[in-house]
Amino acid sequence: AVVGKGNYRHFMEKELHEHPAVLGDTLRQYLDPKTLEVRLPRLPFDPVRVPRLTISACGSAFLAGMVGRYWIEQLARLPVDADVASEFRYRDPPLPEGGAAILVSQSGETADNMAALRLLREAGQKVLSVVNVPESSMARESDGALLTVAGPEIGVASTKAFTAQLAVLACLAIGFGRARRELSTLDEGRLTQALLEVPGHAAAILERDEQIKTLAAEVAKARDVLFLGRGSLYPIALEGALKLKEISYIHAEGYAAGEMKHGPIALIDREVPVIALCPSGPLFEKTASNLQEAAARGGRIMAFTDAEGAGPLSRFAERVIEMPHAGDFAAPILYAIPVQLLAYHVAVLKGTDVDQPRNLAKSVTVE
Ligand code: G6P
User: Is the ipTM of this complex over 0.95?
Assistant: First the structure.
């Protein structure tokens, strides 16, 4: 069937607005809302026995994989290596006997990741792919595949497929945690409950569109933009910067908030907006103090947070965009949405070809 734009100006805008439905459909696939349990199909490996996991992907899918690494290590206490496929395939890393890998891809056709897949299988690793296209090469050649239920994604820059990848990886992390007896039934219930609330929160975030447009007007004037986050929000800071570069052509960098003092702080002045992803939780105070250091050097802090009254951020942030209270586990899924929306609005203001940015392809099938 031919996919249209409906009443939207761009496919990307339409796809951004599909977040609540796509997240709902994907989560329903892998968790039971009645029992609050994760329900995974038969996997090609036993998470209790694997000594280590490799995650390989490209672009935004790699950043989803990076969040997956944080979740799986934290909830399942299983060591994970996450790599971009173009590095992984030539790095020649030692792979453990009985090891396994997770490949993440929207298209399931990306050449570097297909090469990683073949290499992994030759090295005796069991490969599970998280893909959006069921009939793709990756789905076919893997030992098992979990589908993201995002539907066709036309905009070159990934949006809904990215958050759907996060949703699947979150379910996997919980499932592994339970299998490895690192999570109690109570923990599992609390985490799945948080995931079940994600589609509703996603809809609430899309209603902040006007606020994000106002922020976009500021960002569109900048030459450089810095995105900061910590923990599982660090990959989302990278995603925010990647998305902005891809479609608005503004130079942006994503950084781990605590690492800013080792370099990017030298760039900070009134001209550089600092987009901070700062959910309440164990790392909130740490990120807030990094931001205060940036503000003290004239940095213009634009913060996304769910902290009550923005907490200490209210003292120095130029702009605060209030996020729903979702808990820190689900935060990466939710904070991905406003950074994608921000990039979208900046690109529209810049008049770029949002759905077909220059030099980029939806699926990179050559090395
Ligand atoms: C291209 C797209 C990105 C995507 C990446 C990986 O660069 O523009 O949006 O994240 O490829 O694609 P895949 O299909 O493997 O997820």
Answer: yes
> Would you state the structure tokens that stand for residue 23, as one six-digit string?
């997240």
**Dihedrals φ, ψ of 277, to 5°?**
-105, 110
pLDDT of residue 68: 98
Distance 286 CA to ligand 1 centre (A): 32
Q: Which pair of tokens denotes residue 326?
A: 């979702």
pLDDT score, position 1: 65
pTM score of the predicted model:
0.97
State the CB neighbour count (10 A cutoff) for residue 267.
15
* Residue 48 three-state SS: coil
Ligand 1 pocket check: which of 130, 136, 363 to mutate, most ligand atoms within 8 Å of Cβ? 363
Ligand 1 binding pocket includes 107 (Cβ within 6 Å): yes
Residue type, position 292, single letter:
Q
The tens digit of pLDDT for each residue in 98-148 reads 999 999 999 999 999 999 999 999 999 999 999 999 999 999 999 999 999
Q: Nearest residue CA, atom 4 of ligand 1?
A: 59
Note whether 341 and 209 are within 8 A (CB): yes
Contact 30, 38 (CB under 8 A): yes
Decide: 59 and 242 in contact? Cβ < 8 Å: yes
Q: How far is the CA of 104 from the centre of ligand 1 (A)?
A: 10
Q: How crowded is residue 354: how many other Cβ atoms within 10 Å of its Cβ? A: 24
Q: Convert 27-36 to b/e letters by CB count within 10 Å (16 or more is b).
A: bebbbeeeeb
Q: Give yes or no for residue 340 CB within 6 A of ligand 1.
A: no
